[in-house]
Design the sequence.
């Protein structure tokens, strides 16, 4: 089954992010579908994320979080995987430490729709090396391999013109870094990027 990725700069914890994601899912019958929402454990946005999912049409019993009794096998059976915004290094490190990283990748390979907001959008790509330009690696994450749902990366919060300037500057200052990406996408605030 082909993968579908919905990438935004704003997540389900904002009204604009909720609108963008709801628009992208508007043709889906969500009532019986299962969604796993990965957020940093110390974020207090669980209720906001759950309310956004309920508003889109998910049923409460089909909304799963990392702190529930969800197993890796259960995650691999999800219909939707959502990865939130925040510090890209912290979120990827938490995904890998929780053991859910491989299960999320498997879910998408099994046909789950991946929804990534900001950091979650970048984590969909091949690695998060470019996150060092925007986030501090407080967690000293060494393994920067991301989910590899497509070959390339995403720069959230950038317009196409901002991305063009960024790539030009990177080609001059760090050509070996920028050359590793076959494709670099921008996803501006208020916009969504859908990759099939």
Sequence:
């Amino acid at each position: 089954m082909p993968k579908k990725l919905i990438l935004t700069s704003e997540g389900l914890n904002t009204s604009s992010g909720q609108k963008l994601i709801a628009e992208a899912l508007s043709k889906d019958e969500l009532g019986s579908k299962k969604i796993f929402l990965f957020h940093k454990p110390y974020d207090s946005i669980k209720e906001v994320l759950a309310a956004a999912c309920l508003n889109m049409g998910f049923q409460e019993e089909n909304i799963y979080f990392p702190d529930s009794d969800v197993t890796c096998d259960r995650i691999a059976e999800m219909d939707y995987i959502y990865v939130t915004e925040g510090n890209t290094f912290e979120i990827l490190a938490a995904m890998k430490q929780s053991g859910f990283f491989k299960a999320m990748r498997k879910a998408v390979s099994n046909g789950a729709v991946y929804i990534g907001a900001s950091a979650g959008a970048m984590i969909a790509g091949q690695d998060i090396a470019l996150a060092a330009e925007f986030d501090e690696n407080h967690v000293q994450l060494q393994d920067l391999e991301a989910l590899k749902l497509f070959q390339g990366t995403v720069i959230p919060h950038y317009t196409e013109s901002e991305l063009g300037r960024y790539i030009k500057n990177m080609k001059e200052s760090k050509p070996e870094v920028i050359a590793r990406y076959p494709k670099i996408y921008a996803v501006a605030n208020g916009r969504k990027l859908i990759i099939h």
About this structure: The first helix runs from residue 15 to 24. The chain has a mean pLDDT of 93. The two ends are 10 Å apart (CA to CA). The helical segments are 15-24, 46-56, 72-75, 88-98, 101-109, 119-123, 160-173, 175-178.
